[in-house]
From TrEMBL:
Organism: Cryobacterium sinapicolor
PROSITE patterns: PROKAR_LIPOPROTEIN (PS51257)
UniProt feature coiled coil, ranges: none
Transmembrane feature ranges: 15-41
Keyword Isomerase: no
Descriptive protein name: Nitroreductase domain-containing protein
NCBIfam families, per the entry: Rv3131_FMN_oxido
InterPro entries: Nitroreductase-like, Nitroreductase_HadB/RutE
Keyword Transmembrane helix: yes
Keyword tags: Membrane, Transmembrane, Transmembrane helix
Length: 404
């Protein structure tokens, strides 16, 4: 009897030791994964999101640029260069950064130029908060030489920006600068209210671009289908997937070095899960293969379009560079004010990209929603969020400044 009790005791002890050993191994493995994922690395790439970040400079021009770099941009490339005027302390010049183009998905650099408008809209809101008005002279030295676009971008400014002290200016959207501009999660079933719709559509009253908000069932289905189709085609376009992969950064260290492009936050991943996923992707890079990435993108888009209250279309009469900038200004104004109203947005503009394999849906959406020859510059889904999305990497303000 005593032998049986002793044997049972030894068996239980062996089980406990085994469980403890397994738990230790798992804990050590988890710790290693989290360490590789950067849990102990300071996220310097998020510094620009601090409300006091702009105060590192006393130059009002640098202060507004420090806010404007929070603006959205294609592939989060942040293709902006700023030159401070040496003759006038209230003037600065915005250039497109031709070293940050994404030619696979944006062969004509249209999205890059739209991103310039977003920068200007953010800059204006920041200036108003700081007691200044901001006026823009677009392409003061003339538009680009399209036969030598890269060189032209570095030589001809997108805008000459003039700041003037103005106690009468006000803004309702300043706090929205510090919230994520894109939310890819499903939205609630709540439709936009009439005051929300009226407030958003009024933003286009003084714009050269046009804004159309659509929320009826037919258009929700049609535009959602365009969104899914555009995502599917992009994931099957090898040049596009390679371009995206080249600007994906899967560790805190690489994000601190790049401060632009994509990261796991783009999937809404935050906190402990972020470091776990980054660690797993680093240790097992095969987890992030093209097939898995494509499947995830399509699944997220499909879930999003199935839970969308409205779509916004921003269009212009033609497709000049000035019109592209104007569309970007309106898009950023829409995004900012939507957040002020408790709404969020996600661009679904893959279907508007100009590479060959996207030609058929590009033509189809324009035939249906721009029948008079307009150019649709942006397609976005709009709604009430179900979750708060994390902010993404941003460059340091000093990196945007260029000596004339």
């Amino acid at each position: 009897m005593n032998d049986n009790i002793a044997k049972a005791h030894r068996a239980r002890r062996t089980v406990f030791i085994t469980i403890g050993a397994v738990a230790c191994v798992l804990a050590l493995s988890l710790g290693a994964i989290l360490t590789v994922g950067g849990i102990f690395v300071p996220a310097t790439y998020l510094q620009p999101w601090k409300a006091t970040y702009y105060q590192q400079s006393t130059d009002i021009r640098v202060q507004v640029v420090a806010h404007a770099l929070l603006a959205p941009s294609g592939h989060n490339m942040q293709p902006w260069t700023v030159v401070l005027d040496t003759a006038d302390a209230n003037v600065l010049h915005l250039y497109a950064d031709s070293s940050r183009l994404t030619p696979a998905v944006d062969p004509d650099s249209r999205q890059t130029v739209v991103s310039q408008g977003a920068f200007l809209a953010y800059l204006r809101v920041a200036a108003e908060q700081l007691g200044y008005s901001a006026s823009f002279e677009l392409f003061p030295d003339g538009s680009y030489d399209e036969t030598d676009l890269r060189t032209s971008m570095s030589q001809r400014p997108v805008a000459r920006i003039s700041l003037a002290k103005d106690a009468s200016v006000t803004t309702k959207d300043y706090s929205s600068l510090f919230r994520a501009d894109t939310n890819r999660a499903p939205y609630t079933v709540a439709p936009l209210t009439t005051p929300q719709t009226e407030a958003l559509t009024a933003l286009a009253d003084n714009s050269a671009a046009r804004l159309t908000l659509l929320s009826d069932e037919k258009n929700l289905i049609t535009l959602g289908a365009f969104g899914v189709q555009g995502t599917l085609i992009e994931t099957e376009y090898l040049a596009a997937t390679r371009e995206s992969a080249a600007v994906f950064h899967g560790t805190e260290q690489s994000k601190n070095e790049a401060r632009s492009g994509f990261a796991v936050e783009g999937q809404g991943t935050t906190g402990f899960k972020k470091y776990l996923l980054q660690g797993l992707l680093t240790i097992f890079p095969a987890l992030n293969n093209d097939t898995a990435t494509a499947k995830n993108a399509i699944t997220m888009t499909a879930a999003g379009v199935d839970n969308t209250a409205a779509y916004g279309l921003i269009s212009t009469p033609g497709n000049t560079r000035t019109e592209q900038v104007e569309a970007g200004i309106l898009y950023a104004q829409l995004s900012l004010h939507a957040r002020t109203l408790g709404l969020v947005m996600q661009p679904l503009s893959q279907v508007l990209q100009e590479y060959p394999t996207m030609a058929a849906p590009y033509a189809a959406i324009h035939a249906q929603y721009a029948p008079e020859g307009q150019t649709i510059q942006m397609l976005v889904r709009v709604g009430t969020p179900t979750t708060e999305y994390p902010v993404s990497m941003r460059r340091d303000v000093a990196d945007l400044l260029r000596t004339p």
